[in-house]
Design a protein that fits this description.
The complex is a heterodimer of chains A (about 400) and B (about 500). Chain A has about 400 residues and is mainly α. Helices cover about 75% and strands about 0% of the residues of chain A. Chain A has one domain (about 5-160, about 235-390): ABC transporter involved in vitamin B12 uptake, BtuC (Orthogonal Bundle). The longest helix of chain A is centred in the middle third of the chain and has 27 residues, at about 175-200. Chain B has three domains: about 5-240, 3-Layer(aba) Sandwich (Rossmann fold), CATH 3.40.50; about 250-345 and about 430-508, 3-Layer(aba) Sandwich (Rossmann fold); about 350-425, no CATH class. In chain B, helix 4 crosses helix 5 (about 145-160), helix 8 packs across helix 17 and helix 13 packs across helix 14 (about 410-425). Classes of the chains: A mainly alpha (about 400), B alpha/beta (about 500). Chain A: It is a multi-pass membrane protein.
């Protein structure tokens, strides 16, 4: 048994610690406003698209630091198609299906050039960024199209009722939300302990008991705190459910399945992966097609939240997603990174955004700060790698 | 004649874990052609890299005395200023630039703000004439053949005002005519007073041009032969190159029964993937039996790796022709996956570049080539994976704290074991091991040899490609010798000797 020492643990959770510190700074800077229920709630639902896009972007970045520049345009394009379809009175589920399908097709189109023709991803997706932005304009005819279908808005987190209703009608606190928080903690704790017991029974390496329980307690407290905060406003935003779903599914894919394993392998050493009998082209194809799918999903969340589609939507979304991944510890050379890391990165950016907004920092300086944070995160990555050598 | 232009005194250069040069002395007189010979890895190139400042002063011990003064080169520029110019084995020309641009790369004519192109091309043409090239210096490098490219390299060296020219295997990629032309050029330069040091494996060429021959073996100078005094026949040189004692460095195999033919290739020909008119493997036929270790000896660039990789599901080359039989049946392997399915494994010579994912842990590397056996519906059974990794760690005695350790943090020997584990887990019948002990220490080598013995004892076939002759001799039941893409010899392991293999190569 080898226990993981404190230094390694700190290194592993650097960005989490950074997140806590930054929240602390803004807590002081905003006089506590940033942690008001409503703001916590907004933070999550406003940034829903970043979480989704960052998850997809992570998969691309894993294959070797490759990025997808087209996602912002695809978000707009797909959102535009859906808005137009619904404005013409088509069935909402049919529209959603078409939107997702279009996303997959767009992804596959770009993935084909990247994977099979060896067009550099930067170029292939830059082309997509222009083309789909143009097509969005065509689809929307240059105008904003509003979405009034309440089913769509409620399910995907837009409009006034984009919260899970409180079945218990609590007065000041949303009881459903609190219960959900408690259940989530219970499930998390039970699963963790079960895994640990079975691991140690089989004689696998486990972390030291202290750090295991510390992590358990801290994470449980975070979940409870979040549930409490959300309960103090309107409860669980529906977009949060989608985020949780996406994160869990993709975390599973990247850690437990063969395709996930291959993503890391290709990014770590493409040649060796090829010589292990793995079709690396398929791996690239998967990463970029999947990015199209998730971009479409982000498009759905975006237009639902705004209850409309406009030709300018989704601008710079790709940059938010890329930034989140790198801040969250993905290597700019591929092969390392995790879905949870990307989520932490997205949260960190979101907190910085919102904190500065509340503090009334000039929008231009907000960008400067975001840029510097991204740079600092990558410098950290490069330096910590150099140290190893 | 007779004036010493260069003297390298007791040069010692260590890399982590290896003493590449151990007290090497080299004395070169002005106006002579001095040849350096030795096996792969003997330290010839390292010595020349020390001389040219690629390994800066301070990273080695010993003195370099050039033209009577002690030199402490920090970088290549320093040595070039003194007129010492090295031409590397790998051509360092940029294909999409013209001859003239290449010649003055890093030494641009004109001012820093504006390159004087007229002067560049005029100068370049002048030097091209000196090496006997009639091409315009405006021709792109990609449009001239390899032989002419090599001449451009020499012209480039002349443009740097070379007084001492170092050529590292200048003819390795040239055909006979081009080689002869190049050697004659060197002889011509010699008459004009140029001093040259030439590193070469081709002993006939060495005998042809060299005035003196220094033999290096295992990082030490063995002897210097003088053409006017000593016998410099090829046999004499070979004796100097390989004359080392064989000790008991190889575990014995007992009672391993050699069975039927497991794999056979007939008339196997492979062309270079980029230069598709170049034959890299030329009509090779060979076979291997169950329970047999077959060594493939040869120099670097003989086409052994290319042969192995082309057999391994066409992982290398284009226009592959020939027949491949597994257990007597002809098979056509479409890709690497297919090869693995047909129970062939190729363990690369370049474990860091082509073999392992260094940023991933041992367990992930161990299972990569056969991940599907641990899966149900593409979901990995991580318990099983852990057990497999642990099993191979025990079996191969890999030294690591846990199998969760990243492979990049292991020593070379342990990395090699992980690489072997990876391919053993793929459960092959025929394992092709390419330089399985390169860059690892003696103890780990012995353990790798033991693993090979275990493999054949279990009825597997092992093809071992190695540039280390003692290893080939010590481990193989049978030895094939390859040179320049062709099989030039086959001998029983017990009957082979370093001399017989070397002369097979050098006289082919």
């Amino acid at each position: 048994m080898v226990s993981v020492n404190i230094k390694d643990t700190l290194k592993k959770y650097t960005m989490v610690i950074a997140l806590v510190i930054i929240i602390g700074i803004f807590y002081v800077g905003t006089g506590g406003t940033i942690l008001l229920s409503q703001n916590v709630n907004n933070l999550l639902s406003q940034n829903a698209y970043v979480f989704v896009l960052a998850t997809g972007m992570l998969l691309c970045i894993l294959t070797g630091g490759n990025i997808d520049l087209s996602v912002g345009s695809v978000v707009c394009f797909v959102g535009g198609i859906g808005a137009v379809m619904m404005s013409k009175g088509m069935n909402v589920w049919f529209a959603v299906l078409v939107m997702l399908l279009v996303g997959v097709l767009v992804g596959a189109w770009q993935a084909f050039w990247v994977a099979y023709i060896n067009v550099p991803p930067f170029i292939a997706t830059l082309a997509g960024m222009y083309a789909f932005r143009g097509l969005s304009n065509v689809v929307l005819n240059g105008y904003a199209v509003s979405i009034s279908n309440t089913t769509f808005l409620n399910v995907f987190g837009g409009g006034a009722d984009c919260y899970i209703p409180d079945f218990f009608h609590g007065e000041s606190l949303n009881i459903t939300c609190l219960l959900a928080g408690l259940i989530a903690v219970a499930v998390y704790v039970l699963l963790s302990i079960k895994n640990r017991i079975s691991a140690s029974r089989k004689g696998y390496v486990t972390t030291s008991a202290a750090s295991f329980y510390a992590k358990l307690v801290i994470l449980s407290l975070v979940i409870l705190f979040l549930a409490y905060k959300l309960a103090g406003y309107k409860g669980i935003p529906t977009s949060l459910l989608w985020i949780i779903l996406i994160v869990l599914v993709y975390n599973y894919i990247t850690t437990k399945t063969t395709i996930g394993r291959y993503l890391y392998a290709v990014g770590g050493n493409e040649k060796a992966t090829q010589l292990s009998g793995i079709n690396t082209k398929k791996v690239y194809f998967f990463a970029y097609t999947n990015m199209g799918f998730l971009a479409a999903f982000a498009g759905i969340l975006t237009v639902a939240r705004a209850a409309s589609a406009q030709p300018t939507y989704g601008q710079f979304y790709e940059m938010d997603a890329i930034g989140a991944c790198f801040i969250g510890g993905a290597s700019a050379y591929g092969g390392t990174g995790s879905v949870f890391g990307a989520i932490i990165g997205a949260l960190l950016m979101g907190v910085i955004n919102q904190g500065m907004l509340i503090m009334g920092v000039d929008a231009n300086y907000q960008k400067v700060v975001k840029g510097l944070v991204l740079l600092a995160a990558v410098i950290f990555d490069v330096m910590s790698k150099r140290e190893k050598k | 004649m007779g004036k010493t232009i260069l003297e390298m005194k007791s040069i010692t250069k260590e890399f982590p874990g290896v003493k590449a040069l151990d007290n090497v002395n080299l004395k070169v007189e002005e106006g002579e052609i001095h040849a350096l010979v030795g096996e792969n890895g003997a330290g010839k190139s390292t010595l020349m890299n020390v001389l040219s400042g690629i390994y800066p002063f301070g990273s080695y011990t010993g003195d370099i005395v050039y033209n009577g003064e002690v030199c402490q080169f920090q970088k290549i520029k320093d040595s070039e200023e003194k007129g010492i110019v090295i031409i590397h084995q790998e051509l360092a020309l940029i294909p999409y630039m013209s001859i003239g641009e290449n010649m003055f790369l890093g030494n641009e004519q004109g001012s820093k703000a504006a390159i004087d192109w007229d002067k560049t091309y005029a100068e370049a043409d002048k030097y091209l004439k000196m090496v006997g090239l009639s091409e315009s210096s405006r021709t792109l490098i990609k449009d001239i053949g390899v032989g002419k490219q090599q001449l451009v390299e020499i012209a480039k060296a002349l443009a740097k005002n070379a007084k001492l020219l170092i050529l590292d295997e200048p003819t390795s990629s040239l055909n006979e005519t081009d080689s002869r032309a190049l050697l004659d050029l060197l002889l011509k330069f010699k008459q004009e007073g140029m001093t040259s040091i030439i590193i070469s494996h081709k002993l006939n060429e060495v005998s042809y041009v060299a005035d003196k021959i220094t033999v290096i073996r295992d990082g030490s100078t063995i002897e210097t032969l003088d053409k006017s005094v000593d016998d410099i026949s090829e046999d004499r040189i070979i004796k100097g190159m390989v004359g080392r004692e064989m000790t008991d460095r190889f575990p014995k195999r007992h009672g391993v029964e050699i069975g039927d033919i497991a794999m056979e290739v007939k008339d196997w020909t492979v062309y270079h993937p980029q230069f598709s008119e170049r034959k890299v493997v030329d009509g090779v036929s060979m076979n291997i039996r169950k329970g047999e270790v077959v060594g493939i000896a040869g120099l670097m660039g003989a086409g052994r790796t290319e042969l192995a990789m082309s057999i391994f599901g066409k992982a290398y080359g284009t226009n592959i022709s020939g027949q491949l039989f597994l257990n007597g049946e002809e098979v056509h392997l479409k890709n690497i996956k297919d090869a693995i399915k047909h129970k062939i494994a190729y363990v690369t010579e370049d474990r860091k570049g082509n073999g392992l994912v260094l940023t991933n842990p041992i367990k992930i590397n161990t299972t990569l080539s056969n991940l599907s056996s641990l899966c149900s519906k593409r979901v990995i059974d991580q318990d099983k994976e852990y057990q497999v990794a642990e099993e191979y760690r025990d079996k191969l005695k890999t030294k690591c704290p846990t199998v969760e350790q990243n492979v990049g943090n292991l020593s070379g020997g342990n990395q090699q074991k992980v690489l072997l584990a990876k391919w053993m887990f793929a459960d092959p019948d025929v394992l092709i091991l390419d330089e399985p002990t390169r860059g690892i220490d003696v103890g780990a080598k012995y353990e790798i040899y033991c693993i090979i013995n275990d493999l054949v004892a279990a009825g597997k076939s092992v093809i071992m490609i190695s540039s280390e002759l003692p290893e080939v001799l010590g481990m193989s039941d049978r030895i094939y010798v390859m040179n320049e893409g062709k099989m030039v010899g086959e001998m029983a392991g017990a009957e082979a000797s370093q001399e017989s293999i070397m002369s097979c190569i050098l006289k082919s």
